[in-house]
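Appendix B, example 12.
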Amino acid sequence: MRIVPPVSPASQALLNESRSHSAAGRYPQAVAAIERAIRIEPRQPVLWLELGNIRLKEGDFLQAESLGRKALSLSAGDAALSARAQQLISAAKKP
């Protein structure tokens, strides 16, 4: 069983920035911030989930589902993160 480590301080700052942009509807800026965080921590499922949720808001359902699957593969052993990834995948399949 793998335990997912917490997001690093640098990635957390970028995650917070991404969430602020996303909440304001500034999706390109949100994507840019979260992609920088992913370059820092490419195996952090929380970051892939965030990017997937942005893509879902943009209406890019195929990409959102793919990112949900990536997050799911990285979150093995963490029931809460796996559930969030499954929710993203399900939401992306509905439309």
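Residues 9-93 form a domain with the Serine Threonine Protein Phosphatase 5, Tetratricopeptide repeat fold (CATH 1.25.40.10). The mean pLDDT is 94.
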